[in-house]
Specification:
Elements lengths: L1 H38 L4 H16 L3 H9 L4 H11 L5 H53 L7 H55 L2
Helix pairs in contact: 1-5, 1-6, 2-3, 2-6, 3-4, 4-5, 4-6, 5-6
Length: 208
């Protein structure tokens, strides 16, 4: 009886842990997705429109106007452009290095930190499910080794618990894995857009 109560308590704890892991993983994935969306231009045309406006102000020598174009836009490219314009006297090569560092530290590092929690959940959810599997099988074998008449109903419950926790662990990990790959794809696209945008911006600054 004591063993049955212990397995019951552990079972509830595992269900609770799986629920907590699932909610934390979903929360982190949503945060990262929103962070990437708030940081990047949706497409190359949108970024080109921003750079066209910036080039127009720079061509006319209206540095203050060019800064105004960037200052209220919190996306990565405008903020990097703002830094480049404000430090344009330092030379193109030095600015290029500094922009790469700022993009890595201020943008990518934050996103990668948040994304690492999603990776942790992807790895830990199946392990928690496996723990439930082990606990369920332990309960089933404890029933078999009790030395009394085997309670087939209780044994079926233990095996069902083992299978359910395994399924729950995988059900948490698989969608998050697909979401993570989608986020990585958006990050790579953002890196390509920012690299192209910075090349164009630096070329414009060299011509001024």
């Amino acid at each position: 009886m004591q063993f049955e109560q212990l397995f019951l308590i552990i079972g509830y704890l595992i269900y609770g842990l799986l629920a907590a892991v699932a909610m934390w993983g979903a929360f982190c994935a949503i945060l990262v997705w929103r962070r990437v969306s708030a940081t990047r231009f949706r497409n190359e045309e949108e970024q080109d429109a921003f750079l066209d406006e910036l080039d127009e102000q720079l061509a006319q020598g209206k540095i203050d106007k060019a800064i105004e174009v960037c200052v209220d836009d919190r996306r990565a490219m405008p903020q990097l452009a703002l830094y480049a314009i404000e430090n344009r006297e330092q030379g193109a090569e030095r600015i290029e290095r500094q922009l790469a560092e700022r993009f890595q530290l201020d943008v990518l590092a934050d996103i990668e930190h948040r994304l690492s929690w999603v990776s942790t959940v992807i790895k830990s959810a199946p392990m928690v499910g496996l723990l439930g599997t082990v606990i369920g099988m332990m309960g089933a074998f404890a029933n078999l080794s009790s030395g009394t008449k085997v309670d087939t109903g209780k044994m079926a419950e233990d095996i069902m618990f083992a299978l359910i926790t395994t399924a729950l662990g995988l059900s948490i990990a698989v969608p998050l894995l697909l979401t993570k790959e989608g986020i990585n794809s958006r990050i790579r696209k953002m890196e390509d857009l920012v690299a192209a945008g910075l090349s164009r911006l630096l070329e414009s600054l060299r011509l001024r």
